[in-house]
Amino acid sequence: xxxxxxxxxxxxIVRFLDAQYVSMDGKExxxxxxxxxxxxxxxxxxxxxxxxxxxxxxxxxxxxxxQGMAQAATAYAKQNNRRKIMxxxxxxxxxxxxxxxxxxxxxxxxxxxxxxxxxAFATRQPDPVLQQIEHQxxxxxxxxxxFRAVTRYFDRISRPEMLMPSLRNAIRVLLDPAHxxxxxxxLPQDVQGEVYDFPTSFFDKKVTAIVRPVAxxxxxxxxxxxxxASKRPLLIVGGGVRYSEAGDAxxxxxxxxxxxxxxxxxxxxxxxxxxxxxxxxxxxxxxSAANDIAAISDLIIGVGTRFTDFTTxxxxxxAGAKIVTINASDFHASKLDAIxxxxxxxxxxxxxxxxxxxxxxxxxxxxKQAKARWAAEYDRLANIEIDGNxxxxxxxxxxxxxxxxxxVHGGAMAQTAAIAVIRELIDDDAIIVGSAxxxxxxxxRMWTSDVRDSYNMEYGYSCMGYEIAGCLGSKxxxxxxxxxxxxxxxxxxxxxxxxxTAVQERVKINVLLFDNAxxxxxxxxxxxxxxxxxxxxxxxxxxxxxxRSGDFLNIDFAMSARAYGFKAYTVHSAEELxxxxxxxKKQEVSTLIDIKVAPKSMTHGYxxxxxxxxxxxxxxxxxxxxxxxxxxxxxxxxxx
Length: 640
Fold this sequence. Notes:
By secondary structure, the chain is of the alpha/beta class. It contains 24 helices and 23 strands. α11 links the parallel β15 and β16.
């Protein structure tokens, strides 16, 4: 008869997590080294009691906002290429609901995130308990059912013995390269404290092997035939290349067969930016080099990409090209009516190389010329100065918008020039973290790095607030590297709570806050589509008028950071930014640089169209043009 432990459900969870390991390519590591939690009445006396008093090796971090800690855990898993996770524990009600957004972030980006959410009593005897939402039509529904829409796996543990298959399934999903994402397990607060005779084997060391399946020969032959029939193929490096550590294999294949390649946000830094065949970012937020070549390509080779609307420019960018895909997920590999090879990116690319023979793409100097044109444009963007001669290239409802901003803030830089200065001065192996606003576009176009995994951009969910929490998670994953959160003032105002966690843990993070007193990219979207500016700029209300005509607010973000214990700076020029960056690198405490950047000074255009909802009842000439442009582009775009 098997030996058992008579322990609580809470302690069983802790013991199980402490015993999980991962192996890949013969390398083994512990899956869970620490957890995040914010204790409340729905978890502090159950799982919380076990974390506090049971024997285990897990480091417990105190989050400040449930969404923030879960975003940090998502970035941590991404920085570890999905081979380590940091589970998060919350109370019931608002605490659990706060993690729903982070679950969406993880699932949209195929990043493993394990969430344990406190729940109402399984017995229902004290219902309605504090923070419980009651439903007359179904008493089994609680706040946690909201997780069903944003997770890959959801379960509710109403009896102790249910925990064992549930945790096994959770690990299965979390470590599946094709289907990973968020996992949420709801824990009724009474069940957490119940005891059960768990088999001791359930807590033995468990090593889950992540394997590299190779696409079958039939699929490889079809993909190879399509490539051999093409003259101007273009390869897209997606996030799957990064997580499979397939960068070297992809680069070798492209070099051998003279195939240029470009990057998605998730694939960036999988291959060095300086590689001669690397055209940079593709799509709506892509640069001219990648988009120009995509426009003339007759075949697209998508490796580890989900083909989001930003990558395909809403299916318009390479609408006439054939598509082949290599992806661990059959679902993603089947998109765009592709000829598919379903398997691990690295193993399948290596196998494909053996089938291609001596094939060479038939490009002449087109990729080289495209890169040269982009280099010249980068140089222009890096040297824009905000002075009396500066004229915004992007539409504005107020002709004096930059002048008014500069007057209120005492000076400003161009956002593109600030990015160039930052790239020049921070360490080569520094990790930058971003997510939302205009910065992801600027960074996909302008950011370069030859150090692998130095770009942690969340752009599957584009979740404002990820940046600073994600910077903390990246730093916890890579404590020996400088980490920089690249965020706008809008994201900062949405969530910067984990700055306090960084201070508490004596972990140094660097926040580069681009303050243009607006949700700049959305204001641009309004203007471009002929919509009057409304609630996308940080302005005072002027009487009863809409919030678009008053003066800009001037918030001292550096002062708020100092209150938390950060070393903080406010800069308005390239010289001030250089001085701040140099000094920040010398600091042992966390830093924040409040960079005043002029509105409308971000990158723009380069051939990527974005399909957005446009009014079919235009009120002005500009809206008529926007509607007609949408019709024209849809006529050219793929339909599936």
